[in-house]
Design goal:
By secondary structure, the protein is of the alpha+beta class. Helices cover 33% and strands 18% of the residues. It is built from 11 helices and 11 strands. The structure holds phenylalanine.
């Protein structure tokens, strides 16, 4: 029969001695039966467990129940028993057989020293590795890229640290074009001794990859270029010195502005829904002629400029959202890559992926994408 703490009929020294003796005998017997880690745990809980452990019980049933004049005597015994019980519980742990968890060797780490059994508590919760998910900007880039892959485009990438030649010169930027100015471009320091075209900078757009690709590939060319770009813009809700673009380039015989419009109109419907409309208005880029800015009808207010009785903020109540720059590749550009402008023509476009992600997900501050706050990023998981 398992030992239970009895209520004491009297608190005389003799009764106390007897009760203590019985308790000690039970302790000894039970500790001898401890064989495994699990045995030991239930043994420990039974004797020193805070809720219903034997020690708690003797405190309640013996010490607290004792009349005033017996408290001293009872208190002393109870203390002795506490010391003895905790010591026995401690002691009975050594000798317990622990089934060690299989040691998992890490890559590149040799486990020369075996794991100390006593140091290994297999009941501890494991280390949870939270599952990551795609960053909303990267996800948006993948979506844009896949729309074009479905049209037969392939993916090209290029360096973020570029030369002046690829970022500007070969893209037909005249020598004093304001985009070359330190106002916009982040230059790598100490490049002054090099000729201008070799000086390094952080690319301000993904367009240099147009040149790099045409240098190594003969027409027909159909590529999309996702990537990081930098501009010297102070960070605020809609600007970041680092952001992302997806560029496109198609060069072949007889490519016309109609192809550009049809391709981009299809892409926008694939991205934002089949009911969006596109609209083009004249613009300027040194490497396209003619150049255009493309707008899509606001997919948030459906082009009305209003959300209920409220003005629609994303489109500034105009019903249109400016989404990308585009145009027909300027014949001067072909001169830099050894294409014959009499034989080929093509179009190019470039869009800001962060801005599209902002619109798609209704985010009101671009900085949220780059602060690395998991509470924000988790929402896209
Ligand atoms: N590179 C331009 C920009 O960053 C966008 C663009 C790309 C325009 C291709 C026309 C053609 O603003």
């Amino acid at each position: 029969m398992a030992y239970t703490v009895p209520k004491l009929k009297s608190f005389s020294a003799a009764t106390l001695d007897k009760a203590a003796e019985k308790l000690q005998a039970a302790l000894k017997q039970e500790s001898a039966a401890v064989k495994t880690e699990a045995d030991w745990k239930s043994f420990r809980d039974r004797w020193i467990g805070r809720k219903n452990g034997v020690l708690t019980e003797i405190n309640e049933l013996w010490l607290k129940a004792a009349p005033k004049d017996a408290k001293r005597e009872v208190g002393q015994r109870v203390n002795e028993l506490k010391t003895s019980v905790t010591a026995t519980v401690e002691k009975s742990r050594t000798g317990v057989t622990i089934v060690p968890a299989p040691a998992v060797a890490k890559v590149g780490v040799t486990m020369s020293t075996p794991v100390e059994p006593a140091a290994l508590d297999i009941t501890l919760p494991g280390i949870r590795r939270p599952l990551g998910s795609e960053h909303p900007v990267i996800r948006t880039m993948h979506e844009i890229v896949s729309v074009f892959r479905n049209l037969g485009y392939s993916v090209e990438e290029g360096p973020v640290i570029e030369t002046d030649y690829y970022n500007f010169e070969a893209l037909n930027f005249p020598p004093n074009h304001p985009a070359r100015d330190t106002q916009d471009t982040l230059f790598i320091a100490r490049q002054e001794s090099k000729p201008q075209r070799e000086r390094l900078l952080l690319r301000t757009h993904t367009s240099p990859v147009q040149i790099r690709t045409m240098e190594k590939m003969k027409p027909p060319v159909r590529i999309v270029i996702p990537g990081k770009v930098h501009r010297n813009d102070p960070p605020d809700a809609s600007h970041s010195p680092m952001f992302h673009q997806v560029e496109g380039l198609a060069v072949d015989a007889n490519i016309t502005f109609c192809d550009l419009k049809g391709t981009l109109d299809h892409a926008m419907k694939a991205l934002f829904g089949s009911s969006v409309k596109t609209s083009f208005r004249p613009s300027f880029f040194p490497f396209t002629e003619p150049s255009a800015e493309m707008m899509v009808s606001c997919f948030i207010c459906g082009g009305s400029g209003k959300r209920g009785s409220e003005p629609c903020r994303p489109c500034k109540q105009t019903g249109w959202i400016e989404i990308l720059g585009c145009g027909m590749v300027d014949p001067n550009v072909y001169g830099f890559v050894d294409y014959d402008p009499k034989k080929v023509s093509g179009f190019a476009f470039g869009m800001g992926a962060d801005r599209i992600a902002i619109l798609k997900y209704g985010v009101d501050d671009i900085q949220l994408f780059f602060n690395g706050d998991v509470r924000f990023l988790e929402q896209f998981g």
